[in-house]
Amino acid sequence: SGENMKKFQTVIDLFLIVIASALSAIGLYVFVNPANFAPSGVDGISMMLEKITEINMGYISLAINIPLLIMAWFFISKKYVVYTTIFTIISSVMLIIVEKIDFYQYISKNNAWIAVLASGVILGARTALMIKIGGSTGGVDIIATVVQQKRPYLNIESLISVFCYIIIGLSFFVYGNIESIIMSIAQMMIFNVAMNSILKTTR
User: What's the whole-model pTM score?
Assistant: First the structure.
């Protein structure tokens, strides 16, 4: 029956959210964190604030996303907000746990570009998964989706890009070198390619 199909689909979606959350925690903790560069979006803000304050980025991500999600509840579909909230909570908790248990980190002085490539692909796949099931990974996406509801004629992709480049620009003041900015931009490009190729094959 239709009801059972809907329930089954929800279970599948929840399973995919857990997978996306795990990809998020692995991409950020294993690859990005030790390589000293900021990814774009709220991940980047959280990572820079962790570097400055030494508070785990899982807590920071929750603190940034929860007010955004409360705002989104009034403007965007409930399913979108619920799925994004579940993702935000699980991925943040996983980030806190992996740090507590001192999970493996990819640390390589002579090849930080492996971290850029791996995290770009992993985080791109995570975001594509969330978009596919009708949610998002929070942060900039929530703001962009709300803006699009209110101002449908705005180019949302450009808006997200501008915001992401501002965050990457700010990372210079945290990491203090130009290499971290180049790594961030390269990671964002790989991220976009990975995300779009997954969304295209399944759209």
Answer: 0.93
